[in-house]
Amino acid sequence: MRSATEHALKVCPIEVSVSVIGGAWKLTIVRHLSDGTRRFGELRRELGDITDRTLTRQLRELEDDGLVHREVFAEVPPRVEYSLTPLGASLQSVIDTLDSWGKEWASSRGLVILDD
After folding, report:
1. Which one of 13, 57, 59, 82 has the lowest number of neighbouring Cβ atoms within 10 Å?
2. Where does residue 71 fall: left (phi above 0), alpha (psi -120 to 50 degrees), or beta otherwise?
3. Residues in contact with 28: Cβ distance below 8 Å, sequence separation at least 6, in sequence order
4. H/E/C letters for each residue in the chain?
5. Tens of pLDDT, residues 14-56
6. Confidence class of residue 104 from pLDDT cuts 50, 70 and 90?
């Protein structure tokens, strides 16, 4: 368990949630993985502006917290695939709710979200 998550356990459940899924890209990564297994390059292309370093860090944290499974295949060149664990998949309702809320927020201000 990451130290940030361990510290959050001493505060409250909301802090635990923020520690585990907070961050600039984590929920977006989980959203993309909810559509199925992805390789690193696929995720990188789907996410757009994320750097390799940031994607690597976010995936490692999601893996450390038990939301993402990383599978390395003994091939040349090496192949690594990422998928959601059952715990990660349990975030689907949270993702759906945040997706709906974001659309409503944008609509209430006359804005359009292009990622649909």
Report:
1. 13
2. beta
3. 47
4. CCHHHHHHHCCCHHHHHHHHHCCCCHHHHHHHHCCCCEEHHHHHHHHCCCCHHHHHHHHHHHHHCCCEEEEEECCCCCEEEEEECHHHHCCHHHHHHHHHHHHHHHHHCCCCCCCC
5. 888 988 999 889 999 999 999 999 999 999 999 989 999 999 9
6. very high
Identity of the residue numbered 38: R
Q: Give the type of residue at 116.
A: D
- Measured distance CA(97)–CA(79) in Å, rounded: 33
**89, 35 contact by CB (below 8 A):** no
Tell whether the model's pLDDT for residue 115 goes beyond 80.
no
User: Distance of alpha carbon 94 from its chain centroid, rounded?
Assistant: 12
State the pairing for strand pair 38-39/68-73.
unpaired
8 A C-beta contact, residue 83 and residue 36:
yes
Q: Answer for the pair 22, 28: CB distance below 8 angstroms, yes or no.
A: no
pTM assigned to the model: 0.87
